[in-house]
Design a protein that fits this description.
Rossmann fold, 11 helices, UDP-galactose 4-epimerase, domain 1, single chain, globular, four-stranded mixed sheet, alpha/beta, 18% strand, 13 strands, seven-stranded parallel sheet
Length: 331
């Protein structure tokens, strides 16, 4: 693929920063737009050459100026709040950022005649699974404002395609995990809520124990099963989605996962083996709304994009995340 000029919205976050690194190494010209509400400036210091614009995409005047100053070939959109529990307690925050700000972005793209978007969606659009593995035909019944905000954006994208020819690929992640294989980028959330980094914080001595919420599910060891996908495999899929759009591909939504689920207990045991540390475990009752299993059928992404995960093994995902965790405190 020839060198492109790409706007990466939310490029200072976990997945966005890995995307920026990937794109710059491939020779693309990258502009990052981020308001640093959850991302980190220091993260961008370790990626390749890019232009940084500090802004919020809800600011329509700043967006207009940005699109006037650059002739973008495409946009990649990662700027979403992601905490499910927070979305239940503060839905307005999620609808304002994840939905309304995205509308501002789509309107700016349409006015500037930028017609290609790769959107960071979520498996949360499906809600409680009716069958496993989950394919794209599964009913969409998100069970929280976070998931609903993602599903609403996907519906907006369908409308903008019909009205303005704005073509998009919505990538429905399952559980993003891991870190850059060279160890200079990784997962960094404040507060952290994802299982693998929390377990590794226990292994590193930064946290006393990891809590398992429910050990009486209908699974082999009684704990929830999730599909973990390496962050490098995610960004590979984004680049392939971009190539697909540049080649004239139609708008589509695709699952991204390995199609292989691991239980909470398997994650803890694998982390203990990788780190050679004892990981203390506490037990707590089930959390409301936690399905027993969430596993992707990603065959459509494989067929449409030619995508194939490089790092499907849980031990590899955890080993790369451990290399990053050992660099804490991050600068």
């Amino acid at each position: 693929m020839a060198s492109l000029k790409i706007l990466v919205v939310g490029g200072a976050g976990y997945i966005g920063s890995h995307m920026v690194e990937h794109l710059t190494r491939a020779g693309h010209r990258v502009v990052v737009a981020d308001n640093f509400s959850t991302g980190f400036r220091s993260t961008l210091a370790s990626v390749g050459p890019m232009e940084l614009v500090e802004m919020d995409i809800s600011d329509t005047a700043s967006l207009a100026n940005l699109f006037s100053a650059h002739n973008f070939d495409a946009v990649m959109h990662f700027a979403s709040y992601i905490q499910v529990g927070e979305s239940v307690g503060d839905p307005g925050k999620y609808y304002a950022n994840n939905l309304a700000a995205t509308l501002s972005l789509l309107q700016a793209m349409s006015r500037a005649e930028v017609s290609r978007l790769v959107f960071s969606s979520s498996a949360a659009v499906y809600g409680e699974p009716m069958y496993i593995p989950i394919d794209e035909a599964h009913p969409k019944a998100p069970s929280n404002p976070y998931g609903r905000s993602k599903w609403m954006v996907e519906q907006m994208l369908e409308d903008f395609d019909r009205a303005h020819g704005l073509r998009s690929v919505s990538l429905r992640y399952f559980n993003a995990a891991g870190a850059d294989s060279r160890g200079h980028l990784g997962e960094r959330h404040e507060p952290e809520s994802h299982l693998i980094p929390l377990v590794l914080q226990v292994a590193a001595g930064r946290r006393k124990a990891i809590t398992i919420f429910g050990q009486d599910y209908d699974t082999p060891d009684g704990t929830c099963i999730r599909d973990y996908i390496h962050v490098v495999d995610l960004v590979d899929a984004h680049e392939q989605a971009l190539s697909y759009l540049m080649a004239g591909g139609a708008s589509i939504a695709l699952n991204l996962g390995n199609g292989c689920g691991y239980s909470v207990r398997e994650v803890i045991d694998t982390a203990s083996h990788v780190t050679q540390q004892t990981i203390e475990v506490l037990s707590a009752p089930r959390r409301a709304g936690d399905p027993a299993r969430l596993v992707a059928n990603a065959s459509l992404a494989r067929a449409t994009l030619g995508w194939k995960p490089q790092y499907p093994e849980l031990a590899t995902i955890i080993r790369h995340a451990w290399a990053w965790e050992q660099k804490w405190p991050w600068q």
